[in-house]
Design goal:
This protein is α+β, with helices and mostly antiparallel strands. It has helices at 2-21, 38-54, 68-75, 80-84, 104-113, 159-175, 191-208, 215-223, 234-242, 252-268, 310-313, 328-337, 358-373, 387-396, 407-412, 433-441, and strands spanning 58-59, 65-67, 88-90, 96-99, 123-132, 144-153, 181-187, 272-274, 286-294, 302-306, 321-327, 351-355, 378-380, 401-405, 414-419, 425-429. The strands form three sheets. Strands 1-5-6-11-10-9-7-8 form an eight-stranded mixed sheet. Strands 13-12-14-15-16 form a five-stranded mixed sheet, with helices on both faces. It is elongated and about 95 Å long. The termini are far apart. The protein binds one RNA strand through helix 4, strand 6, strand 11, helix 12 and helix 14.
RNA sequence: GUGCUCGUAGCUCAAUGGCAGAGCUCUCGGUUGUGGUCCGAGCGGUUGCCGGUUCGAAUCCGGUCGAGCACCCCA
């Protein structure tokens, strides 16, 4: 009777110890953005702000959680995103909310909810924020990832906006010094010609016989025939080559739309490839679809397309729109790999305040405020008391001047200004400290 | 979701069944209040976690968590 109890107690104690020691990890596929990589993120934010501003896109932020149905209706019930990749939660009152897996549908929801059509057409919006997909992580593929997106809503389906979206997206990447870009582009038609084409494609594969194509293709044939063109299986390749091509099956209006879009892009001399197998995974796309790649990287760094039916899918009247999205993590990885230099996220300090003794320490915070008023960034190491340690830090921070405030200086109401490069020092009245440093910085 | 590879100090890596180590980083010191170089010391680990085999496990086995690769899919 005693033994089991004893064992239990030991086990409990062990657990307690373990609990104390256990370190937590960030959730699978979700990452911290540490101070040392913030410079890349800041650079991307800055450039995207500037690009958006120039092309007159207004910033919009939508909640991270949305009614799950928004995505089910727009992205498509049979897509992987909706079928297995959404983080869904139920609130206490029973609402089904989803962590947004993409940015476009929420923006259209906001557009309809707030009647943003009143602000005139076309409405140009951009966003930057986290998206969530429950997937098996890999390099460049995370469960929480950040996207920048551009949307042009309204103004019918004028192909010039297809071209402008592509241009803006392309310029953003180019502005970040990422080279060797190519745009893959295709048109997947409208409701009418797409479904005609899908039937044609299904017929073609059915005639071939199911046993000739891979298992994935058999599944695709049933649920999403356009995806057949995406198959990378070697056996399927030859059938793909013979398969009907969507560009040959577009209706007159879609064909013309695509032709004009390409003319605009030709005019801009953007490097693009016609890719008739490019179809995109989301249901709301129609007509133009595109992806932007860089040499040596398998995955797209940006993608987008036209979505003229999305407003209707979300309960509004039909409003044509076109948009794009960029994967920030993928861009950051590229910038690191290619050793693209970016300015530091923090500004450089000009001076370092050193205190020796309690009276000096007491004056430190107040003195720093004087420098802030004077517009000079001054740093310190208030937790360190030895002069040597403080000078070491000042050196490491590469400041121009160290200001030394000791017992004697406090008594005399003065401060030492030390030029860190030459080592020359001068004692000046403390009232003139800011002014003196300012003068020397020139 | 399927198949495979990898997890040792904050970082880069040693130790391959027998005492867990090095370099870098970080902290402090090298005699009154003066940095970098140099020298010295210290901090940092129940080897991701749990279990099994064994006299003995970082090492072998199983599971699990995480990272990555190829699929699936995608930013």
């Amino acid at each position: 009777m005693f033994k089991p109890q004893k064992k239990k107690i030991i086990k409990k104690a062990k657990n307690k110890k373990k609990m104390k020691k256990m370190l937590f990890q960030s959730p699978k596929g979700m990452h911290d953005i540490l101070p040392e990589e913030q410079s890349y993120w800041e650079k991307i934010r800055k450039v995207s702000r500037e690009i958006a501003d120039f092309y007159n896109f207004s910033r919009i932020d939508t909640p991270i959680l949305e009614t799950a149905e928004i995505f089910e209706r727009s992205i498509g019930e049979t897509t992987d995103i909706v079928e297995k990749q959404m983080f869904i939660l139920k609130t206490k009152s029973g609402d089904r909310l989803a962590l947004r897996p993409e940015g476009t549908a929420p923006i259209i929801r906001a557009y309809l909810q707030h009647g943003l059509s009143r602000t005139g057409h076309p409405l140009k919006l951009y966003y930057n924020g986290p998206m969530f997909r429950y997937e098996k992580p890999q390099a460049g593929r995370y469960r929480q990832f950040n996207q920048i997106g551009f949307e042009i809503i309204g103004s019918d389906d004028d192909p010039i906006f297809d071209a402008q979206i592509i241009l803006v997206t392309y310029q953003l990447i180019k502005e970040l010094k990422i080279k060797d870009l190519t745009i893959q582009i295709n048109s997947i038609g409208c409701k009418n010609c797409r479904s005609t084409y899908q039937k044609k494609l299904q017929n073609y594969y059915n005639k071939l016989g199911l046993n000739k194509i891979c298992k994935d293709c058999q599944r695709r044939l049933m649920i999403n025939p356009l995806r057949l063109l995406d198959c990378k299986d070697k056996n399927c390749e030859e059938f793909k080559e013979q398969a009907p091509i969507i560009l040959d099956n577009l209706c007159n209006s879609c064909n013309n739309h695509f032709k004009v879009t390409l003319e605009f892009i030709d005019e801009l001399k953007l490097p693009y490839n016609l890719n008739p197998t490019l179809v995109r995974g989301l249901d709301y796309y129609n007509k133009t679809v595109f992806e932007i790649f860089t040499e040596g990287v398998e995955v797209a760094i940006a993608s987008g397309g036209r979505y003229d039916y999305l407003t209707e899918m979300l309960g509004g009247r039909k409003i044509a729109a076109v948009g794009s999205g960029l994967g920030i993590e993928r861009i950051v990885e590229l910038m690191k790999d290619r050793e693209i230099v970016v300015p530091p996220a923090k500004s450089k300090p000009k001076a370092f305040l050193i205190h020796i003794g309690e009276p000096a320490k007491k004056q430190s915070l107040g003195l720093i405020e004087e420098f802030r008023k004077g517009g000079i960034k001054i740093i310190e190491s208030l937790g360190r008391d030895s002069l040597k340690s403080q000078l070491r830090i000042a050196d490491k921070e590469k400041v121009f001047f160290a200001l030394i405030l000791g017992q004697k200086e406090v008594f005399e109401e003065s401060i030492i200004i030390r030029d860190m490069r030459s080592g020359a020092q001068e004692t000046v009245p403390i009232r003139k400290a800011v002014e003196e440093v300012k003068r020397r910085l020139k």
